[in-house]
Design goal:
Shape: globular
Helix content: under 10%
Largest sheet: 5 strands, antiparallel
Number of helices: 1
Structural class: mainly beta
């Protein structure tokens, strides 16, 4: 497994056709999936958010981690730093499973 000095691993976001469009890093697959989910088109609230399947292949392996991800807009906390906008994107993921590819 390809791990950086900081323990982070790289995960490629796979499209349905097998193309890998983006790479997200994290210590765990879930951490990378949360980063990917934050890039989804956010809904007005978590209840209205549509779930989208996220397929993340761990670089250097044939393992694909499959998650449902969703994102929504939320008001920033009152104690937010000055540079933070008034509305932020939140996200969540739910693991569906792992798939093993025959070839890369």
């Amino acid at each position: 497994m390809a791990r950086g000095d900081d323990g982070k691993r790289n995960f490629a976001l796979r499209e349905k056709n097998g193309e890998e469009s983006s790479v997200f890093s994290g210590r765990t697959p879930r951490q990378a999936a949360l980063k990917a989910a934050r890039r989804l088109d956010p809904a007005k609230s978590e209840k209205k958010a549509q779930k989208t399947e996220l397929r993340l292949r761990e670089k250097g392996t044939k393992k694909v981690h499959i998650y449902d991800g969703w994102a929504w807009k939320e008001e920033a906390p009152d104690d937010k730093p000055g540079w933070m906008p008034g509305e932020i994107t939140e996200a969540n993921v739910s693991k569906k499973g792992i798939e093993h590819l025959d070839e890369i």
